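Support reply, case 0932

Customer input (verbatim):
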Amino acid sequence: MGQPSRGLPPDRWSGNDRDWEPARELPDPPAEPSWATVLATTSRLWLERRGLRRPVSADAVPKSAWRRFGLLGLVLVVFAAGALTVALIRQTAKDPAADPAGGSLGAASAVRDDAAAWIVRRVSPGAIVACDPVMCSVLQKRGFPAGSLLTLGPSAGDPLGSSIVVATAALRSQFGSRLTSEYAPVAIAGFGSGTAGVQVLVTAQDGAASYLSALRADQRARRLDGTQLLGNDRIGSAAAAAAALSAGRVDTRLLITLAAMAHQQQVQVLSFGGAAPGASRDVPLSTAELAIPPGPAGRGYLRSALALLRAQRAPYLASSMTTTRLASGRTVLFVGFAAPSPLGLLGPSAPLHTQSSDHPKKSPGKSKPRRKKH
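Our regenerated output:
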């Protein structure tokens, strides 16, 4: 025989036909089990290993039972995964340590809103307020004048061009300990806690040490003049109000205003207030509730008092002068001054010019308080 024909298939390329054998067919690979079968087997083995069922041979279980076991195992797996997810969500909600920032974004936003509402209500609109961009935006939306906001971005040098600093987490991170040790050592209000907390601080233009020294000197002067007011028989006060006067805790502007009002008529102080949550005890009380006489005399008293209050000029012009009804049903005159409280209005050797009842009254047109010359 000659060369094999190239036209024949490769399995026929042989020099001897007797050596040729037909090609063997390979057996088909076993079919892969379905997911239902796998889940059923897993569930059965898990139950048998824990003694929850007796082992059985695969032949003793019909195919329909395997399908039921598979579906049951699938349901168990899905149920266990859902229960685990719910448990993790509940644990995260209950565990405060799960939120390293000390509060959710919603809680931090609520704290900023509380601080902004207090600032708009109690801080003078002419005071320059330093804040981070987010806080400044909240203040502006709340109605605080945009021209009185000093935005402190990451590249800001310091907040010394302001009267008030709103210490948020952003500013505390930006300035570190210098924020209170150098720039603004005294808090007049505080809201929230942790990293979400917001403090309203008074800026110390000449440094923290100088401001604290001036604050102590101012308190000594307020103590002296408060005691002097207590000796005026035209000024009466409740026990708590008298204690605040003798301790020097009353704002200088209120002291001067009470002295001026006493020149015109009898003054009865029911209480002093205005301390915000989180404020330092050294911050003066800047509001007062004054008794209004009952009957027709009360209307004349109120007209005279309001005329005097409205005739004042800054910094002695009150930011609030309204009548308020107490829970007891009594109507009082509420007088309040905006933050921050200025220091140094009372000289150490220039006490208030208070007037006793045997002196003539001052007319409302001459309402500006005067001092004794020494």
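We compared this against your earlier run and they match. Two observations from our side: Confidence is low (pLDDT under 50) at residues 1-21, 92-102, 354-374. The longest strand covers residues 267-273. Please reopen the case if you see a mismatch on your end.
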